[in-house]
């Protein structure tokens, strides 16, 4: 019987048109993507809409459109799109033209901050589980496609698909200041933060990741850094592999990223490029040492 290597497969394509690159990357994956879409009962596309104040910190609507283009070639039916935005998802939808997607009758935009929830958790500083509501829509979707820009992060080191999938699905109370402040719930220390990402991801994995390096952020991410153009897109049916390759291209050893280290130990990798099946471009040609978050090296205390 032929061994299935799809969990090790990741595509790296380059160019300037993100919508076209994303469609090209998905096409490279062929049946790996097509069969998952065909068999899915509910498809949820999860962009990063952390803020409405800086476009470079969020998923460009054309990246999502590229994914929707490809899904629509495979099947009809409803496609759900949403996030639990820090500054309000609905305002981000409007600011970044996501409402243009909903003009298609099969697209439904969802503010996960208003979603029904199931119980999840994050670790406290003492590594005890503290209950946190988790989006029921995300939990019940059997095809979660995370579409994100590649960013540095002042707490999680990088903000890629897994951070968006988990943190952007955890529904915390609306504060009097009009924000959904996650730091009292999730930022209890670098070690518990990375453990939380890894362990909750095991309970609620995503099925596909698109990481958009045509719009990346270095320095003070996830919202206040400098936007840079890396001219690549990554796609994989294994978000751990996708995040690991993106981290490498951003100048990190993937094993330096706490949640990737933990997930690899749990067998959800690989995170070593030598163990991956990289399709498309040679990663070595596109690796850059991006400016690290101002919290570095303190963020390495996750170890």
Explain the overall architecture.
Helix content is 30%, strand content 24%. The protein contains 10 helices and 12 strands. The strands form 2 sheets. Strands 1, 2, 3, 4, 7, 8, 9, 10, 11 and 12 form a 10-stranded mixed β-sheet that branches. A hairpin with a 3-residue loop joins strand 7 and strand 8. 50% of the residues are buried.
Biggest sheet overview: 10 strands, mixed
Q: How many β-strand runs?
A: 12
CATH superfamily: LarA, N-terminal domain
**Whole-angstrom Rg:** 18 Å
CATH topology: Rossmann fold
Derived structural class: alpha/beta
> How many domains comprise the coordinates?
1
Low-confidence stretches: none
What's the total helix number? 10
SS strand fraction: 15-25%
How is this fold's topology laid out?
Layout (H helix, E strand, L loop, with lengths): L8 E6 L3 H12 L1 H9 L3 E5 L13 H14 L4 E5 L5 H7 L11 E5 L5 E7 L5 E7 H5 L2 E11 L3 E3 L1 H7 L15 H4 L3 H14 L4 E11 L7 E3 L3 E5 L2 H11 L8 H8 L11 E4 L23
Parallel strand pairs: 1-12, 2-3, 2-7, 3-4, 7-9
Antiparallel strand pairs: 1-11, 5-6, 7-8, 9-10, 9-11
Descriptors for this entry?
single chain; 303 residues; alpha/beta; ten-stranded mixed beta sheet
Brief summary:
This protein has 303 residues and is an alpha/beta fold.
């Amino acid at each position: 019987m032929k061994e299935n290597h799809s969990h090790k497969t990741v595509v790296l394509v380059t160019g300037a048109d993100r919508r076209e690159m994303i469609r090209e990357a998905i096409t490279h994956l062929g049946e790996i993507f097509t069969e998952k879409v065909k068999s899915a009962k509910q498809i949820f596309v999860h962009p990063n809409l952390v803020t409405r104040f800086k476009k470079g910190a969020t998923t460009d609507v054309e990246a999502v459109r590229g994914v929707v283009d490809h899904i629509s070639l495979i099947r009809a039916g409803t496609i759900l799109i949403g996030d639990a935005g820090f500054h309000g998802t609905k305002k981000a939808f409007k600011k970044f033209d996501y409402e243009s997607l909903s003009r298609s009758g099969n697209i439904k935009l969802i503010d996960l901050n208003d979603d029904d929830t199931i119980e999840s958790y994050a670790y406290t500083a003492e590594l005890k589980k503290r209950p946190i509501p988790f989006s029921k829509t995300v939990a019940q979707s059997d095809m979660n496609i995370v579409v994100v820009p590649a960013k540095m992060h002042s707490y999680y080191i990088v903000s890629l698909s897994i951070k968006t999938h988990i943190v952007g699905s955890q529904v915390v109370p609306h504060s009097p200041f009009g924000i959904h402040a996650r730091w009292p719930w999730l930022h209890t220390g670098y070690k518990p933060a990375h453990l939380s990402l890894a362990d909750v991801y095991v309970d609620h994995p995503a099925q596909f990741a698109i990481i958009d390096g045509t719009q990346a952020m270095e320095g003070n991410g996830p919202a206040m850094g400098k936007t840079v153009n890396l001219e690549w897109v990554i796609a994989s049916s294994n978000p751990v592999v996708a995040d690991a390759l993106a981290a490498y291209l951003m100048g990190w050893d993937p094993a330096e990223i706490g949640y990737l280290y933990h997930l690899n130990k749990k067998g959800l990798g690989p995170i070593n490029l030598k163990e991956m099946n990289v399709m498309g471009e040679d990663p070595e040609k596109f690796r850059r040492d991006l400016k690290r978050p101002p919290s570095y090296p303190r963020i390495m205390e996750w170890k």
